[in-house]
Description:
With 205 residues, this protein is of the alpha+beta class. It contains four helices and ten strands. Strands 1, 2, 3, 4, 5, 6, 7, 8, 9 and 10 form a ten-stranded mixed beta sheet that branches. The termini are far apart. Mean pLDDT is 82; it is low at 1-24.
Amino acid sequence: xxxFLRKNTLLLGLLFLISGSLFSQTxxxxxxxxxxxxxxxKEPNSSLKSFKGVVILHTQVEKVNALxxxxxxxxxxxxxxxxxxxxxxxxxxxxxxxxxxHVPWPFTDRDLCVEAKITNDPATGVRTVxxxxxxxxxxxxxxxxxxxxxxxxxxxxxxxKNTVLLTxxxxxxxxxxxxxxxxxxxxxxxxxxxxxxxxxRVEQH
Length: 205
């Protein structure tokens, strides 16, 4: 009987921890602009927030896949990216690249090494592009602060022949001396600009 109670107490405790973890990861709606819905949530083990942007695109999924998988056409990227170097490009599979971000004075510019893996679900047609830091590839530079805590996920889901559900999720710790409260105030601006850039290009007639 004692073993039974101990076992069930442990099970209840695990269920509580799991449910608490799931609850803490709930997205909070922030705003909608130009048909783009933006959300944030508390990132585990951080004072910073992660972000999510969702939009319905009126275009063919091939156009979206081509744009997100291109290393030549980066004009829709964050305008603060001042330098991009492609390290590896395996078309529709893997992209490794090095980025330098301009940060307004008095803060120091940042750099980041990234590996983006592209996967496709043949049953649903959903494509996922998941990016995370790539360590020990480009030596750190004394005049830049290296970003090491980062992830980003694009989900491209075809709804029908001319409609695509596009979702961008991500998190970045800018490191250094950027206050978390300032970061959290502007966290939705970057995904909004990036998604709008894609929207403007793939919906052009």
